[in-house]
UniProtKB/TrEMBL annotation:
This is Phospholipid-transporting ATPase. GO terms for molecular function: ATP binding; ATP hydrolysis activity; ATPase-coupled intramembrane lipid transporter activity; magnesium ion binding. NCBIfam families: ATPase-Plipid (TIGR01652), ATPase_P-type (TIGR01494). Mg(2+) binds at residues 429, 431, 868, 872. Its main location: membrane. Pfam families: Cation_ATPase, PhoLip_ATPase_C, PhoLip_ATPase_N. It is found in: Membrane. PROSITE patterns: ATPASE_E1_E2. The keyword Magnesium applies. Its EC number is 7.6.2.1. Involved in transport of phospholipids.
Length: 1193
């Protein structure tokens, strides 16, 4: 396999299965749950067509991720469209338009709805068609399936059935969930890539049962038959409980034998597998649920405005109907006709004075149709199109492109663009989000002696914070040390400098034997895979985590090179203490007890060449130190001190320890461990942990490691800008408190002089109760302690409310458990919201999600979660906006996010620039939509009032229909995509501008109603100026007066001009596109009136040649339009000028700076910028300001 590329991989037939012991023994029936609830699936391997299999009627392997089918598209899509109240209203109005009640033709009423619904359904259809194309491609993939007599033929994935035997070859995807039967290797292992499932890039090893490992070729399956009984389909990717009956033997099955659909076979020529789960029963499809539906606050508020307009519309129709009923009734009194010209004595029911109440009710229905132009029918379509185009701008922003990994920003949904401009609180992971998740071995403590002279970013920040002169000394020391080792190239993952133990000098140290055991443990206790470079012979490693890679590399650099792993051994090149030469040593690998988040440690059991049994263990200090034997604590106090120092320096620590095992002890453990691993029960992992717990005791301490996870570039600057923007920043991390605090200082979340409120359960009383093992008493005392600490913290906040002191809240995971309980969480939130920054340490993934939910629901403000790992998924989905960092920990966070970015620092531009722009654009666009519809709808209402509420429309049917679709929609769309109140440079230079979104000043009810009032004013001016100007005098040279058709056309021209000029006035940033769509919309109206008026009278009705023969030749028409347009925009222009000059908003102040050329005047800009710095903010700018204040005092 190595001959095809530069790298040569070791033979994978010799790679250790991380489970070590294969589940090949007969199982104890007492432990079985098979056949019980949740464990009822039966698979007849290599006999999928048998009678029993047919009775089970399992799903086929066809997979569909589409929302619709050809049959369901029309009904389901229409249902989705008419779930919106506005669309349902227009449908009812369209249906009523086919009755005699309609004030216009049915076609003109229904066509705009058809256009809008068709456009939206087309968008849905195209998206679903793309999904269908992807599904078709997947379902039509080919795989080899056993047809009988040892013959394998290609078939499409969709044709597979449960029980089929398939042959999957190298670099192919698994077509269903398969039970691994064998591979081309004797020990039946294979290498699997699961990136499509969990985003993890490291490869996983799988291994078949011994009983099926001999099925090496196609002919082996001629007579093969087996029955698998296992769990029912479920979404858990990491568990599988089952058993196999083969040749009257019973074998237990584990996740080690399960190959999941959509994972890929790597570095293995082929495998044979039995199909266990197909199609939507597979684990990947069970996990394929839609992400939680998120709607922005602006969109939700828009729905409320629509409901408000519905109320106004019904009120207008109701009032108009009452007036109409009264007037109609008075038309005929005692046989006398008041309005004789209407002939009320010989009329229909719609105008009959004798049946006035019925006429009023019928008029109410007519008015509902006539006033529907208050509701902007094209709003939602324009809304969605604008958001999609905004997302394209975000995706193509070069300032958020990370060249190193070739990853641009990616808006995975466009629903939340404007929400980016309203974020109040950011909840951030630390590792891989604020830091690089690229670990470097920096320091260690061995036998109570600290080694390593490196200086961390945190130590430099601490030195700056304290104003320490040692900073230069540290720098000189590093430079000197670096100079002494510059002859050696830097190694990724290894930044250790200490001449005492480097280059083999550790053999001269007083505790050389302990150092030897320490380094040997680093080289053996891991799950890494060694790879040999074909050209240079150098060894590199594939590890499950960056920490693990750093440890193996450190062992290699210090003389213990791990170079080979087989099924039963680990081989090292070791530095011999006596001779000083490299020697090969092999260790028989007996068991690996894997790391998990509950155990917080990992162990291996090996036998050395002298025959000694050794247990090597590494893990978190919180679980390791309590497992030390009495004679194994020689260096405990010194090691604790060193670990505290490392934590203060922002380093991640692990404790290393070992013990020797007796043969009897190991034999007893082996029996129990094997039984636990072979258990076919839901609590299998618990049983394994319990067995491991017994042997991982009486350990002898060797020392501790310290690795650095460096801050990402630009993190402190980004946090500083976000803090100046008034955004609160919370850090939710799994690290210990000291590490998190010092990272907080390094990235300016914390500063000197900021008072820290620390909530933990480290009091002596709590610890004493924990030793008593009285769980009820511990719980009660712990909760009481947390409540007391929260109350004390709130008292501190209250006491300093009038001072400029700022607080930081720091709480650990154990305390957070109690703080999030229903009767405590509101107190905790009240305290946390009053603090400038919050750090939650030792947080579990569930706690991260719960804290996010508490902040979101408790404050009612927009939250943003940002993380990079699978443990952040809950937080991202719970937050209003989830940002995934496409970093080292795979793509699971990205796949669950709303927007993906490559580096934390890009959050600054995403929020302060794109967030502000999108919020302002969408808010203004919606306000403008309501303005133009109110302006148009009120003219219709006023004309109907002018005609005694007779139901007479002011405009031609098609004028009414095309207003929202053709003459005013594009300028609003251009505004929603292109407008900028302030350039990107000024958005970042003056971050307080962002608060306009947080405080929702651009989409408040006051602003919305203000725009509607502006529309009302415009409508009144248009209507009364037109009617008064055209009422009596001759309109043309021939003395002709104005009829309803000419009045309607003139008013319509004025409306189109006014709303488009209004758009031009309200824009802050003109582009060629906006000029084209604004003036093009006006031109479009004139072209339409010419074309439509030229049609035959039976089509153009009362618009026939009106513009061509009546309006355009009349100078009074053009003068009136000019005069009305100027008069209608004067109120808004005057209001804007006054507010801009005397009561400017923050963005208008910045526009003044730009306009007057003061952007380079540092004194003036600083005066404006000072409004963005408050005593409670964090960041280095606030730190400098705090220092300046203290010096002034």
């Amino acid at each position: 396999m190595g001959g095809h590329g530069r790298r040569k991989r070791l033979p994978f037939s010799h790679i250790l299965s991380f489970r070590c012991k294969k589940a090949s023994v007969k199982d104890d029936d007492d432990n079985l749950q098979i056949g019980g609830p949740g464990f009822s699936r039966a698979v007849f391997c290599n006999d999928a067509g048998c009678y029993e299999a047919g009775l089970l009627n399992y799903r086929d392997n066809y997979v569909s991720t589409t929302k619709y089918t050809l049959v369901t598209f029309l009904p389901k899509s229409l249902f989705e469209q008419f779930r919106r109240v506005a669309n349902m209203y227009f449908l009812v109005v369209g249906c009523l338009a086919f009755t005699p009640l309609a004030p216009y033709t049915a076609v003109s009423a229904i066509l705009p709805l058809i256009v809008v619904i068709t456009a939206t359904m087309a968008k849905e259809g195209v998206e679903d068609w793309k999904r269908n194309q992807q599904d078709t491609g997947v379902n039509n993939r080919k795989v080899k399936v056993h047809r009988g007599n040892g013959t394998f033929d290609l078939t499409e994935w969709k044709n597979l059935r449960v029980g089929n035997i398939v042959k999957v070859e190298k670099d192919q995807f698994f077509p269903a969930d398969l039970l691994l039967l064998s591979s081309n290797y004797e020990d039946a292992i294979c290498y699997v890539e699961t990136m499509n499932l969990d985003g993890e890039t490291n490869l996983k090893l799988k291994q078949a049962l011994d009983a099926t490992a001999g099925l090496h070729d196609d002919s082996s399956f001629t007579e093969f038959k087996a029955v698998v009984k296992c769990e029912d389909p479920n979404a858990n990717l990491y568990t599988f409980v089952g058993s196999m009956d083969l040749e009257e033997q019973h074998y237990s099955l584990t996740p080690q034998q399960l190959l999941l659909r959509d994972s890929k076979l790597r570095n293995t020529n082929y495998v044979y597998g039995a199909v266990v789960f197909t199609g939507h029963d597979t684990k990947v499809m069970q996990n394929a649920m839609d992400p939680p539906s998120k709607r922005s606050k602006v969109e939700k508020k828009t729905d409320k405005i629509i409901y408000f307009l519905f109320f106004v519309l019904f009120l207008m129709a109701f009032v108009g109907s009452i007036v109409f009923g009264i007037v109609t009734k008075e038309d005929l009194e005692n046989g006398r006709m008041k309005r004789w010209y209407l002939r009320p004595d010989a009329t229909t029911v719609y105008f009959d004075p004798k049946r006035a109440p019925i006429a009023a009710i019928l008029h109410f229905l007519t008015a509902l149709m006539l006033y529907n132009y208050f509701i902007p029918i094209s709003l939602y379509v324009s809304f969605e199109v604008a958001k999609v185009l905004q997302s394209i701008f975000i995706n193509q922003d070069l300032h958020m492109y990370y060249e190193e990994t070739d990853k641009p920003a990616h808006a995975r949904t466009s629903n939340l663009n404007e929400e980016l401009g309203q974020v109040d609180t950011i909840l951030s992971d630390k590792t891989g989000t604020l830091t690089c998740n690229s670990m470097e071995f920096l320091k260690c403590s061995i036998a109570g002696i600290a080694y390593g002279r490196g200086v961390t970013e945190v130590e430099k920040a601490m030195a700056r914070r304290k104003g320490s002169p040692l900073l230069n000394e540290m720098g000189d020391e590093v430079d000197h040390d670096q100079a002494s080792t510059d002859t050696k190239p830097l190694t990724k993952g290894f930044n250790f400098k200490d001449e005492r133990i480097m280059n083999g000098k550790w053999v001269n140290e007083p505790n050389a034997d302990v150092i030897q055991k320490f380094l040997r443990l680093l080289a053996i206790c891991h799950t890494a895979i060694a790879e040999e470079d074909e050209e240079t012979g150098n060894i590199s490693y594939e590890a499950e985590s960056p920490d693990e890679a750093a440890f193996v590399i450190a062992a290699r650099e210090l003389g213990f090179e791990f170079y080979k792993r087989t099924q039963t051994s680990i081989c090292l090149h070791e530095l011999d203490v006596v001779s000083g030469a490299k020697v090969d040593r092999s260790y028989e690998l007996l068991n690996v007890i894997e790391f998990n988040s509950t155990r917080k440690r990992m162990s291996v059991i090996v036998r050395n060449e002298e025959g000694k049994l050794l247990l090597l263990c590494k893990g978190a200090d919180s679980v390791m130190l309590e497992r030390l034997s009495k004679n194994g604590r020689e260096f405990e106090e010194l090691t604790r001190d060193h670990m505290n120092e490392y934590a203060d320096a922002g380093l991640r620590t692990l404790v290393l320890a070992y013990r020797e095992l007796s043969e009897e002890e190991y034999t007893e453990f082996k029996v129990e461990f094997t039984a636990a691993k072979n258990s076919v029960s839901a609590d299998r992992e618990t049983l394994i942990d319990e067995v491991a717990e017994k042997i991982e005791n009486e350990l002898i301490l060797l020392g501790s490691t310290a690795v650095e996870d460096k801050l990402q570039p630009g993190v402190p600057e980004c946090i500083d800008k976000l803090a100046q923007a008034g955004i609160k920043i919370w850090v939710l991390t799994g690290d210990k408190m000291e590490t998190a605090i010092n990272i907080g200082y390094a990235c300016s979340l914390l500063r000197q002089g900021m008072k820290q409120i620390v909530i933990d359960l480290e009091s002596q009383g709590i610890k004493a109760l924990e030793k008593s093992e009285d769980k009820a008493a511990v719980t009660k005392a712990s909760k009481a302690s947390i409540i007391h600490q929260i109350s004390a913290g709130k008292a501190q906040l209250t006491a300093s409310s009038e001072s400029s002191n700022s607080f930081a809240l720091i709480i650990d995971g154990k305390s957070l458990t109690y703080a999030l309980e229903d009767d405590v969480k509101n107190m905790f939130l009240e305290l946390a919201v009053g603090c400038a920054s919050v750090i939650c340490c030792r947080s579990s993934p569930k706690q991260k999600a719960l804290v996010t939910r508490l902040v979101k629901t408790g404050t009612g403000k927009t939250t943003l979660g940002i993380g990079d790992g699978a443990n952040d998924v809950g937080m991202l989905q719970e937050a209003d906006i989830g940002i995934g960092i496409s970093g080292v920990e795979g793509m699971q966070a990205v796949m669950s996010s709303d927007i993906a970015i490559a580096q934390f620092r890009f959050l600054e531009r995403l929020l302060l620039v794109h967030g502000h722009w999108c919020y302002r654009r969408i808010s203004t666009m919606i306000c403008y939509f309501f303005y133009k519809n109110v302006a148009f709808g009120i003219t219709v209402f006023l004309f109907e009032a002018y005609t005694s509420f007779s139901g007479q429309a002011a405009y031609n049917d098609w004028y009414l229909s095309f207003y929202n679709v053709f003459f005013t929609a594009l300028p609003a769309l251009a505004l929603g995509v292109l407008d900028q109140d302030v350039s990107a440079r000024f958005c970042i230079k003056f971050p307080l501008l962002y608060q306009e979104g947080v405080q929702n000043v651009l989409f408040s009810w006051r602003r919305i109603l203000g725009w509607m009032f502006n529309g009302l004013i415009s409508a009144i001016i248009i209507f009364f100026f037109c009617t008064k100007a055209l009422a009596y005098q001759a309109f043309r040279k021939g003395g002709e007066t104005v009829g309803m058709d000419i009045l309607g056309t003139t008013m319509y021209t004025c409306v189109v001009w006014v709303v488009n000029v209004q758009m031009a006035i309200s824009l802050s940033y003109f582009t060629l596109i906006q000029h084209i769509v604004i003036w093009g919309s006006v031109l479009n109206w004139y072209l339409f009136s010419l074309a439509y008026g030229s049609m035959p009278p039976n089509l153009s009705t009362n618009a026939y040649r009106v513009f061509l023969e009546a309006c355009s030749p009349a100078p009074s028409y053009w003068l009136l339009v000019l005069f009305v347009v100027i008069a209608a925009v004067i109120p808004y222009y005057s209001y804007s000028a006054i507010t801009m000059r005397f009561f400017p908003m923050y963005h208008q102040m910045i526009q003044w700076i730009r306009q007057e050329g003061q952007s380079n005047d540092p004194e003036y800009c600083n005066m404006v910028r000072q409004r963005s710095i408050r005593p409670t903010t964090v960041g280095f700018t606030a730190r400098a300001e705090a220092r300046s204040r203290s010096q002034r005092k």
